[in-house]
Amino acid sequence: MSRTDQVLKQIKTLSTNTPDVEAAAIVDNDGLMIASALPADMDDDSVAAMGAALLGLGERITDELARGDFQMVMVRGDSGYLILVRCGPEAVLSVLAAKGAKLGLIFLDVSRAAKEVARLLG
Q: Cα–Cα 20 to 30 A to 82, which of 25, 64, 75, 102?
């Protein structure tokens, strides 16, 4: 199994096995999609570009405001959450979660998945 297939398998597992996780994607720092388990009605390129932009902003904010090393960006909307977590120096894991999601469980599973993806991309 190729490295890309292993990364895709990891995010599909996250999307199907973690309650309230609706979709996941791995995006590189330049905003290019590496792998995705997104609904068909979502544009991969837009998700990748916005994820990379938000990641860059999050990292700059943590640096400028002396909040330590970047760990996560979370955006909450009326219909749910977007969570971005760094997975190695060159990529970010982007996760969509449902409105009533149990965030503690999601944070734990997302953190584990990000570590595994970082290892695979390493």
A: 64
